[in-house]
Design a protein that fits this description.
This protein is an all-beta fold. It is 3% helix and 54% strand.
Length: 136
């Protein structure tokens, strides 16, 4: 089988695209071992829409059990967690993950917003132990 991105990686939503105002919203956990695929690598993708005001700090979090999440240590990140502001309309941010936890999610903390901004996030998991990656 020819190795392609389609059969070695899969994107899963973690943070629904929505208008963000002041406060913290935690995304849904993404299982890096879903369908026993055992992904060995992952990446957080954040996509901003229109950001009218406020500061939207996005953080990649990890967990062993999909219940207790902590922020990923800087040593386990490739790049850095983005903070999206009013000058960041329609941008895409990528943050690599090289840690060893099974579950990942995005968390966004918005402050200083009157009308806020729209953004969402996905986790791309890949480099499965036995390709192709499951699409079920």
């Amino acid at each position: 089988m020819r190795q392609t991105l389609y059969n070695t990686a899969r994107a899963k939503a973690t943070l629904a695209i929505a208008l963000r105002t002041n406060g913290t919203v935690n995304g849904t956990g993404v299982d890096l071992h879903e369908n026993k695929d055992a992904s060995r690598s992952a990446m957080l993708i954040v996509h901003s829409g229109t950001i009218t005001d406020g500061s939207h700090a996005v953080t990649l979090q990890e967990s062993d059990d999909n219940s207790t999440f902590t922020n990923v240590a800087a040593a386990d990140l490739q790049g850095s967690n983005p903070t999206v502001t009013s000058t960041d309309d329609d941008k895409i941010y990528e943050v690599g993950y090289v840690g060893s936890k099974r579950y990942l999610r995005a968390s966004v903390t918005t402050s200083g917003a009157t009308t806020g901004g729209t953004l969402g996030a996905a986790i791309v998991r890949g480099f499965v132990r036995r390709p192709p990656i499951s699409r079920s």
